[in-house]
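> call design_seq(struct)
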């Protein structure tokens, strides 16, 4: 779910837009997906019609025009393209930052007089909860990181569980992530840990599991140390053998 921070301005903004041409609706997409925001022209396509897009007052880099049923666009970004059917805007590889209220400005340039219409729509980007095991220099401890994108951080409360056991962790109220630090004997290899993110605005609970995996790590210095020890033992053996041979040789010489 997506939360629009300008909670007081948006209702008035959307109401005014609906009064102009009627809101086109709410479109929902998950991160990484492709979404189409439709914006059809109320004018005849044989006219020259210019389309301009904006989001939250900022220009969306994809303006285009139609003239004699032909579309021309030159400044669209790699993720944003003109969609031929239904006519509108295509956003690929959707990100959390793509969420918001979009305004499609439709201007009939030719023939005169110039006329302008507006179409508004809302794009909601579903929240994405991920859990990952971080690298740790201490083999007796594990560090887990739980991250949530697409929501307001001040409305998220994180908890960690192992089965029915609630695990203690550091929770920052204005953070979009939470970390869990466990040391022996409070974890074992193969434990399943669950991160929960409670979004208070809609009372939605997101959960994601992770299984702790820890392989035996060999120190980078273990092999050199073993080699040095073996070399020292070999040298000692050679010295002992040389000394025994020297003593034996002297005894034979005296005899």
């Amino acid at each position: 779910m997506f939360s629009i921070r300008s909670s007081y301005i948006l209702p008035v903004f959307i109401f005014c837009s609906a009064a102009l041409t009627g809101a086109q609706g709410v479109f929902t997409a998950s991160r990484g997906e492709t979404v189409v925001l439709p914006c059809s022209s109320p004018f005849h396509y044989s006219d020259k019609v210019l389309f301009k897009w904006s989001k939250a007052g900022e220009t969306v880099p994809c303006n285009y025009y139609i003239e004699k049923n032909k579309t021309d666009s030159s400044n669209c970004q790699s993720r944003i393209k003109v969609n031929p059917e239904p006519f509108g805007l295509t956003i690929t590889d959707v990100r959390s930052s793509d969420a918001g209220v979009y305004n499609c400005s439709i201007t009939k340039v030719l023939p005169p007089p110039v006329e302008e219409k507006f179409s508004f729509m809302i794009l909601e980007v579903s929240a994405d909860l991920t859990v990952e095991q971080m690298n740790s220099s201490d083999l007796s401890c594990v560090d887990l990181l739980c991250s949530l994108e697409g929501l307001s951080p001040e409305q998220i409360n994180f908890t960690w569980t192992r089965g029915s056991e609630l695990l203690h962790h550091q929770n920052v109220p204005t953070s979009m992530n939470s970390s869990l630090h466990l040391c022996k004997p409070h974890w074992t290899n193969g434990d399943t840990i669950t991160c929960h993110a409670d979004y208070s605005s809609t009372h939605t609970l997101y959960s994601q599991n992770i299984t702790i995996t820890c392989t035996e790590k060999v120190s980078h210095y273990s092999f050199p140390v073993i080699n040095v020890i073996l070399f020292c033992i070999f040298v000692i053996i050679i010295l002992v053998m040389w000394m025994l041979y020297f003593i034996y040789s002297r005894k034979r010489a005296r005899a």
